[in-house]
Amino acid sequence: GGRMIKWLKQINVISHETKNHYHYHDNRILPPHITAEESLKGNWWYKPEYIFNELNINSAIAKPDHNEVLPIAENVSKEYEMAGYAYTGGGRKITRVEVSYDGGVNWELATLDRKEKPTDYEMYWCWVWWSFKIKVSDLVGTKELWCRAWDESNNPQPINPTWNLMGMGNNQVFRVKVEMTKDDIGQNIFRFEHPTQPGQQTGGWMTKTVTNVKHAGFGLINQDGDETKEEPAKVPQEKSDAKKKTYTMKQVQEHNKEDDVWIVVNNKVYDCTEYLELHPGGVDSILINAGEDSTEDFVAIHSTKATKMLEKFHIGDLIEDVSISADTKKPAFEEEKKEMESDDLIDARTGRKAALNPKKKIPLKLQNKTVLSRDSFLLDFALPTKNHVLGLPTGKHMFLSATIDGQLVMRRYTPISCDYDLGCVKFVIKAYPPCERFPRGGIMSQHLDSLLLGQTIDVRGPVGEFHYTGNGNFTIDGVKKSSNSFNMIAGGTGITPCMQIAAEILRHPEDTTQISLIYAAREENDLLLRSSLDEWEKMFPSKFKVHYILSDRWRKDWKHSTGLVGKKLFETHLYSPSDDVYNLMCGPPIMLDKGCTPNLVALGHKKTHMFSF
Questions:
Q1: Distance between CA atoms of residues 28 and 50, nearest Å
Q2: Closest among 483, 475, 399 to 444, alpha carbons compared
Q3: Bridge-based pairing state of the strands 227-228 and 220-221
Q4: With contact defined as beta carbons under 8 Å apart, do 351 and 422 qualify?
């Protein structure tokens, strides 16, 4: 194509500039006010300053492709790799490509793959490939994916195109539209739409009048390539009360089922029914707030980015119900709510009263504390009575919350005790002190470390996507699965969910599920509850085995592994890939993302057979 690489057999050189028609009437970038009629006046075609002699900087997104579909439920916890290319003219070098998924507010660097070496004159003439991994969960609420390139002269691509008569040289940021919709079988998907299609193919959002873009010259660019005068901007007006959707708390509370979930955050009402399967924290985390004002809980554990993701599901605002006065008899829904919030919930497995309540926080009093290492400790909290059980299904976790320095802080924790422990719940906690990377340290872990006997912490739950039901059967977000063997990889306090599931398997002789656990820590003293793990290995040699790995320090006669988790370690100590083998992981994100998942995949384990707590 024009100004791209040519394959030449012969070059003819003449002493004067050619008079060829296309030399003057092509490859021109005329000012945006010059129309076809205007161009014939004033010798515009013959002015050398408008010749398009070398390419300007440009880039494009090749993946996701036009009309590509990405199923959400099966990919929401994964990453999607975007890809594309970039080029520029004059032999300049492409120095970076950036991607934005929030309308250009923030830009992130893509990874460049430069196939070409520079010429002897340090010139670059070829395309550069780029790639960028984006979390699928970050696509929720995203309207467009943008990319732009920079060259060594620090020329970036502009945000808006500039209309010109020949339509040449437009190098605005490349924008792919993202639509969240449903496919033919009713599953939630992301569908991607490119601005145009190559050659004579039809399609693309930029070819539709309704998505006309404003250009940097004047007016709009419509589907015929003409310009249209832009109307003066209208002053935004508030919607009238008649049109503005509002709801009372009574109305919100009627939507508290899994197939009809509304919540309130900062006096805004959200219909989260379709968001359930998209939520990275699992279905339960939303369902415990169904039909409720969840402002306090939401703000305590979510970022502004999460708030933006929620905006897609905003359906109206909350108003006070003036029809119900303080003297009016409480409506039926209040009685139902009171019944649900009572302390007399019954645990289905044991038939005993359950302490945990998904609809309200329960204060539990600290009755004992045991120091395990220099920064780890075991906390023993009393349940409401000595006959209560916690009421936490195996594999799930719960929220601990407290007001710290005037702000509500909530964190998820998995206890090491179970519903066979009456009247108490126990947690193994690692305290994270302030450091350079995290100046405040672990806010909740430090607060838990500071608790005195007799003081309380608020708990709420259960929540979580994973539920072990026994004999190798389990569910993930309600989908039934089964396994003959579990590979478990734990780092630090990530041992707690692994121990919870292992304990449930080992206490039932009829459950023949096998477990191979790799437990990683910095040094030997950081291997929490190691004595229990070693005892299990001796008592249940056919069902349970454990191997340790230390990354920082170890004694000379240390018999287990050292270094970081990796492919060789997994190949030696874990069960081989099989449809009957499932991999459970819990630990620092960098360990899971860099050390666990890619090495398990390299050994042949399917990502569909992996779960991270």
A1: 5
A2: 399
A3: antiparallel
A4: no
Confidence of residue 502 (pLDDT cuts 50, 70, 90): very high
Contacts of 339 (CB under 8 A, 6+ apart): none
- In one-letter notation, the amino acid at residue 505 is I
- 212 pLDDT band, cuts 50/70/90, is low
Distance CA 19, CA 194 (A): 39
The pLDDT score that the predictor gives to residue 217 is 47
Positive or negative, the CA dihedral 46, 50, 53, 59 is: negative
The pair of structure tokens assigned to 417 is 């005790």
pLDDT score recorded for residue 303: 58
- pLDDT for the residue numbered 314: 83
Q: For 98-115, what is the HEC assignment?
A: EEECCCCCCCEECEEECC
Q: Report the C-alpha gap between 221 and 562 in whole angstroms.
A: 63
The answer to whether 605 and 575 have CB atoms below 8 angstroms apart is no
Which residues make Cβ contacts (< 8 Å) with residue 473, sequence separation at least 6?
Answer: 480, 481, 482
Q: How confident is the model at residue 237 (pLDDT cuts 50, 70, 90)?
A: very low
Contact 91, 107 (CB under 8 A): no
Q: How far apart are the first and last CA of the chain?
A: 52
Name the DSSP class of 524.
G
Length of the chain equals: 613
How many beta carbons lie within 10 A of that of residue 277, not counting itself? Answer: 16
* Nearest alpha-carbon partner for 363 in 345, 346, 383: 383
Of the candidates 146, 199, 171, the residue with the CA atom closest to the CA atom of residue 52? 171
What is the C-alpha separation between 486 and 202, in angstroms, rounded?
Answer: 51
**Predicted pLDDT of residue 209:** 60
Structure pTM?
0.58
Secondary structure of residue 300 in the 3-state scheme: helix
pLDDT value of residue 131: 96
3-state secondary structure of 248: coil
Burial class (CB in 10 A: 0-12, 13-18, 19+), 600: buried
Asked if pLDDT for residue 428 goes beyond 50, the answer is yes
CA–CA distance, 184 with 120 (Å, rounded to integer) = 56
The C-alpha atoms of residue 228 and residue 469 are separated, in whole angstroms, by 64
On the 0-12 / 13-18 / 19+ scale of CB atoms within 10 A, 61 is buried
Give φ, ψ of 414 to 5 degrees: -110, 120
Prior bond of 64 cis (ω within 30°)? yes
Other C-beta atoms closer than 10 Å to the C-beta of 85 total: 19
Name the residue with higher pLDDT: 235 or 366: 366
Active-site amino acid positions: 397, 413-414, 586
Look at the block and give the residue holding tokens 């780092």.
491
Q: In the numeric block, which tokens belong to residue 429?
A: 């906690």
Q: Which residues 6+ apart lie within 8 Å of 486 measured at CB?
A: 501, 513, 514, 515, 516, 581, 582, 583, 584
User: Are the beta carbons of 219 and 161 closer than 8 angstroms?
Assistant: no
Burial 328-350 (b: 16+ CB within 10 A, else e): eeeeebeeebeeeeeeebebebe
In sequence order, the 6+-apart residues with CB closer than 8 A to the CB of 343 are 353, 355, 357, 362, 384
**Cα–Cα dist 421/443, whole Å:** 29
pLDDT for res 240: 40
SS3 state at 470: strand
pLDDT of 216: 46
